[in-house]
TrEMBL record:
Highest taxon in the source lineage: Bacteria
Source species of the chain: Bradyrhizobium nanningense
Bias (Low complexity) ranges: 1-11
Region (Disordered): 1-29
Domain HTH tetR-type: 31-91
GO molecular function: DNA-binding transcription factor activity; transcription cis-regulatory region binding
The protein's name: TetR family transcriptional regulator
Key words of the record: DNA-binding, Transcription, Transcription regulation
DNA-binding region: 54-73
Amino acid sequence: MGLTATKTRAAAPRREVPKSRGGRPTKTAAIERDQRLIEVATRLFLDRGFDATSLDAVAEAARVSKPTVYSRYGDKRGLFAAVLRREIARWLAPLSAAAETQLSSLADISVEQRLIEIGREMLTFTCGPDAVAFSRMMTSQAINFPDVAKLGKEEGWLKAVATTARFFDHLVAQGALDVEDTTIAAEVFLDVVVGHTHRMATFGTALEMKAAEKRMRAAIKLFLAGALGPAGRVQDAKGTQRRRPSR
């Protein structure tokens, strides 16, 4: 959405919000209003960046009063935090879904293939244009607003690590992985599988999915070289990708 589209939407007549008997919007109307505010703010932050987006512009584009925006979010930092929290939840959803899918997948699927499926999902949502744009904004505002960086860490990175660690706990219980600390293993896995590609995308390097997936597969092989348990080695031997015999 560009500036022209934003102006066109801003010019539309303000929609009447259903009110309760006390004069306040109904609960349903308030939820719809907040969703509209977040949607509009998301597009404006992506189109204009953090510094060039004002609460007044968001209120106008969302067709709500300025006092409503200020009373709901306090300031632009509060609005950005709300937008970021929702975006992070959207990015984490595919990771959680992929982990759940692999937990319930057939036992004869190799550990390597399970991790490849998760890695592919991670590449798609962490290196997409919106995720990269928000990563840049969060990084640029982290010094001035440490709580924004804290939000990104706690709601994003730590939850991604926890989700991956729970998946690893399951594999350890099956004897498919042999790691002492699944949280550290999850941190290493996330960093080697998508960390480099995400950083390059943040720097503006064009993302080539074919090359990114090739790197992801190689990173997973390196990760598994020291992490496969006895059951994982037997399982992997049945697959198309065979481990080299130890010397």
